[in-house]
Design brief:
The active site is at residue 109. This protein is of the alpha/beta class. 39% of the residues lie in helices and 22% in strands. The protein is built from six helices and seven strands. The chain has helices at 13-23, 43-49, 65-78, 95-100, 121-128, 163-193, and strands spanning 2-8, 29-36, 54-56, 83-86, 105-109, 132-139, 149-156. A seven-stranded mixed β-sheet has the order 3-2-1-4-5-6-7, with helices on both faces. Helix 1 links the parallel strand 1 and strand 2 (29-36). Helix 1 packs across helix 6. The two termini are 16 Å apart.
């Protein structure tokens, strides 16, 4: 069974969706570790309720990204992590982690990339007046939402949808589609390893 680390910065709704998928048997993986860069984030409580180990840190306490990413790497290696899953982690991944886990870091972005990369993607889509947006699951590289795309799912924007409505629609799709895609990735990796 694949061991994943989830990186999150906020409330942890996608973290919870992944936990739920594992508990229901829809995702054959183990969450070995939660990494959180905000020591007060609500996601930490969610992890503690399910006895998932947590590593929190405050980036501003370190002289550089390379230093705190080296410490994170040590935590990941101790936990024997196979994949890193970003679920609302609001930092760019640096070279230290990218080199330690090449093609093993997965991100969820709330738009159909390459449209609307970066922050506030849902708001960008609504302001642009597009009729269809969606979510993209992709491998992480050194750019901002530029890594190879793994899967995408479209979400329609109705004429009378507010920003809140679109956010709700996007989150509903994320909570189903992200665990499903992670399951496919875990199975693919397993098959390749035991060919």
């Amino acid at each position: 069974m694949r061991r994943i680390a989830i990186f999150a910065s906020g409330t942890g709704s996608n973290f919870q969706a992944i936990v739920d998928a594992i508990q229901k048997g829809n995702l054959q993986a183990t969450i070995a570790l939660l990494i959180c860069d905000k020591p007060e984030a609500p996601v930490i409580e969610k992890a503690q309720k399910t006895n998932i180990p947590v590593f929190t840190f405050s980036p501003k306490e370190f002289a550089s990204k390379a230093i705190f990413e080296s410490i994170i790497c040590e935590q990941l290696q101790e936990a024997k992590v196979d994949f890193i899953v970003l679920a609302g982690y609001m930092r760019l991944i640096g070279p230290t982690l990218l080199q330690a886990y090449p093609n093993k870091i997965i991100n969820l972005h709330p738009s159909l990339l390459p449209a609307f990369p970066g922050k506030e993607a849902i708001k960008q889509a609504v302001q642009a007046g597009v009729k269809i947006t969606g979510i993209t699951i992709h491998y992480v590289d050194e750019g901002m939402d530029t890594g190879p795309i793994i899967a995408q799912e479209a979400v329609e924007i109705s004429e009378d949808d507010t920003l809140f409505d679109v956010e709700r629609k996007i989150h509903q799709v994320e909570h189903i589609f992200y665990p499903q895609t992670l399951q496919k990735l875990c199975l693919r990796e397993y098959e390749e390893e035991y060919k």
